[in-house]
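Sanity check

After download, print the first record. It should look like this:
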Amino acid sequence: MKKLFQKKKNGAKKKTRRIRKIILGIVLALAGIILASCIVIYARLKPLYRNAKEQSYDILSTMNEGTFKMESATRIYDKDGSMIGRIGYANYEYVPVPDVSPYVTDGYIAAEDQNFKHHNGVDYKATLRAAIQLVLHRGEITQGGSTITMQVLKNNVLTQERKFTRKILEMVLAKEVEKKYNKAQIMEFYVNSCYYGNQCYGIQSAAKYYFKKDAKDLTLGEAAMLVGTSNRPNALNPSADYDACLEKKEQVLGRMAAAGYISDVERTAAAEERPEIFEFKEKVDNEDAMTTYAIHCAALKLMEAEGFAFQYTFDDDASYEAYCKTYEAAYQDMADRIREGGYEIETSLDQDLQKKFQRAADDTLTEETEKEDDGRYALQAAGVCIDNETGMTVAVLGGRGDAGEYNRAYQAKRQAGSAIKPLLDYGPAINEGVISAGSVIDDSKVDFNGYQPRNYNDIYRGSITVREAVARSSNSVAVQVLEETGMRDALEYLGRMKFRTLSYADNHNLSAGLGSLTNGVTVEDMARGFAAIANGGKMRDPGCVKSITSDLEGEVYRYSGEETEIFNEDTAFILTDMMQGVCREDYGTASEYVTDLQYYAGKTGTTNDNQDIWFGGFSPYYTAVTWVGYDLPRESETLADEKYNIRIWSAFMDEIHQGKEKKDYSVPDTILLDNGSGKYSKPEYEEDIYDSRPGGSDYVSGMLLDKIEEEAYKKRLEEQKEAAEEAVKAFEDFQIESTADADRLEDEYNYALNIVEEMEDENEKKPLKERLARKYALLAGEVETKWLAVKAAEEAEEQDAVYIENQEIALQSAETAEARIHDANVRVVNNYIDALNRRTVYTITLQSVVESARNALSRCDGYPEYNELFSLLNQAVDYVNGLPSAEELQRQAEEAELLEQASEQVEEDPVIQTAEAP
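Expected structure tokens:
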């Protein structure tokens, strides 16, 4: 029996040992499996963990509080901090955790992460469960384990993909986040990044959309509904499935009660709540002139902050085209980003001034009622007003009435007409020492390689000062000044003023001096230029943006008031003083409409075809520029006749200056008076500076005297060089083609040489003298010698010609003398013949006369007339030979007397008469 018992006992021991061996085997096997699993897990996790560490470094290096904030609507504020617009997402608003109901935060801890207040970002038990499931399901995540900290990272930093690699990265980052931020901050990040459906991001937007209240005012039931909604926002939100949302609410309440955050009574009461759903959407403001301009200015500032390289002038067309594409893409991207939301923009815009500017335009154009098909007014207006004290824009006129989103103040590019002259023509020329206000220029028709600028109505006034040319808006003088300054140099001034519409083509475009730039200009750019003159020649950081704060990055821009010198202060004052003449002189182009409420200075502008009219001007307080025209440009005499541009400007400026002291412009200490004598003096001013300038004198910059003299010297050298070059060229063109040319050689050479010798620039003189010497040597050698020989031969020939001519003259003279002897001899004979024929009494002396006549006839022997003369003389001799003598004539007379007496007796005696009667 004992043996049997022992035997049984031994069998039991063996069985126990066997069982132990089996158990040990099982344990060892399990240990092996676990070890193998650990090795597998380690082998798989090690590279994943190393990769996660590397990724976490890159993420943590750029992480800040903004990383966990979504972007809200962009908010735009005026100068006083009043909101003037909200652009972008309307439903998102980041709220600090104290402004969130504790029911929400407690609900999330109870439902999502009960150890949130104690762990270091990772729940290791939940993670181990997830790891085992990972192995069992071959790397696919089937179970969570994320803490609230990890979910914050998933919502804001990482992707939503369900991969264990992302889970490891979450774990690594979560521990670091817990070191960097406290629990309250992490909870704040979480409730502001959860999605609740219907475009509701963050607890505040969800509370407003579903319950029309702030997150801090949510009831327990409402809070539990939203906590449950964020797990499946598209399916379990109150609008999509109200009953399912209520069921989820009860689950959350149960967990809150189990965790001790609420009592059973609170749980029961909240479970019975059936909150009303509002689906409330806040209205986002439409963009108007102020908001569109604020976005425009902010976009430029953010582009600058991100390192965009702005460029305003260009050397060639390729660089211009490339820049335009880059600029337009960057600008549009930045403007879109702002409109998408996430920024707070503080501006300098003044709503009171804005209303006055709008009213001035609308009232002035009230009779222009024509409208386009879309309801817009056909005739439009635009304007920009800048506060001279701050240099910032305070009012923007985008168009008439409710102009919509198209803001003509910065979007419309139009031709500036003569309004550009102070900025492009006169300002640069004065600043470079090319001209001064008193410079006299010939206002006449001019031609620049075919370009012929014309004055209004083709009226030209001859020699006038620059001052008068500005007031009268002479186009001829303006272009002459621009040409002398140099187009490229003058254009650089517009570049420094940040004119954003300049083209490469404008480098060679003299008509730009009259406002005809290739792409036109904007009202904003023109206002910035005029404000620089008003600010003593210095342009401040342009625009209306005082600061920009990003919801994600904090403050990204703040206005500094930094100044850029465009003109020196002397130039600015001289420009200002000349521009006062536009408003104050009777012939000034704006004098009819600009009042004397303040000291105003300005410049009108009208394009040749009357499509655009401008007025830019300023007082010591404000600068304003106005434009009037049609969106689709058309010619209109009404624009030029009605002066809408000046009337809007004047109405607006007078209204905003009401009650302000009439303040004059300041005068730099370096301003001098030039009376034309070459000596300068310090001016003395009375109350009105403009009227204090003595007649016959004008201002000159003391700062620029050296520059003016240098410019005069350069101009003199240029004139000398031009004259010398012309003289040398004329001598080089001179050729000896005659003996007269040979005689002129020395004179021509000395004339050109004297002009070259008068040059002050020795470097320029030398090559010109060498050119003269080469030409002279060429002509003064064999060429001159041969032509001098030609001259000698011609002189000998001339002497021979003179001798021959003298011989001919002598022969002619002898022949003339013989002819005159012939005529005299013939006349003598004829005279004798006539004398003989006139005789009535023959006397003895007639024989000597006859003899003399025959002697005279003998001298005519051989003449053609001899025979005739011989016959006539003989007849005359026969005649005189037949004449009675004197005695015979006496006797005949006596006989006749006796006969006459006898006849008288017979008549007196009647007897004798009767007796004798028959």
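If your output differs, re-run the checksum step. Summary of this record's structure: The first helix runs from residue 2 to 61.
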